[in-house]
Write a structure and sequence with these properties.
- The protein has six helices and six strands; from the N terminus they run βαβααβαβββαα.
- The radius of gyration is 14 Å and the shape is globular.
- The chain has helices spanning about 20-25, 40-55, 60, 75-80, 125-130, 130-140, and strands at about 10-15, 30-35, 65-70, 85-90, 110, 115-120.
- With about 150 residues, the chain is α/β, with parallel strands linked by helices.
- Helices cover about 30% and strands about 25% of the residues.
Length: about 150
């Protein structure tokens, strides 16, 4: 099962002054944002689809992908203040890259207003390590499912 992620739902942060306006206009109520550093290959997309499917989130309809390189930054807090995001899963990006002043505790769900936020290892690391997948799953189980 290989995921097809609509290109309109993938936002590539390729410059330091990335404007969240386009992403903000696209976000609907109760959306999920997935942040990752590395481009996702087919096995990573498949694993992501399984992870999200387990918490009843449809990758092709409810998820916005934010590809953020190691040296790039984005002000995610601005988007979260609008309250339309119910979950952010961060696969390996540092909180300072997201301009969030939070402690990075892997696999613990943080509440940022109405948004649940979980910091994880990169998807490729999860694909190679069942224990890491279980840690993420245990964290995600504490989130309310639909």
């Amino acid at each position: 099962m290989i995921s097809h992620i609509p290109s309109s739902k993938i936002f590539q942060v390729d410059h330091t002054d990335f404007d969240l306006e386009e992403l903000s206009r696209s976000v609907e109520d109760k959306s999920t944002i997935v942040v990752h550093e590395e481009p996702l290959n087919d096995p990573a997309k498949d694993l992501l689809e399984k992870i999200l499917g387990a918490i009843k989130v449809d990758l092709s309809k409810e998820v916005f992908m934010l590809h953020l390189g190691k040296t790039k930054h984005v002000h995610l807090g601005r988007l979260l203040r609008e309250g339309n995001i119910h979950l952010v899963i961060n696969f390996g990006c540092q909180s300072k890259q997201l301009k969030l002043n939070i402690e990075e505790i892997k696999y613990k769900v943080l509440h940022l207003g109405a948004t649940k936020y979980i910091y994880s290892d990169p998807i490729d690391a999860l694909d190679k390590n069942k224990q890491l997948k279980m840690l993420l799953w245990n964290g995600l189980k504490t989130c309310a499912f639909k």
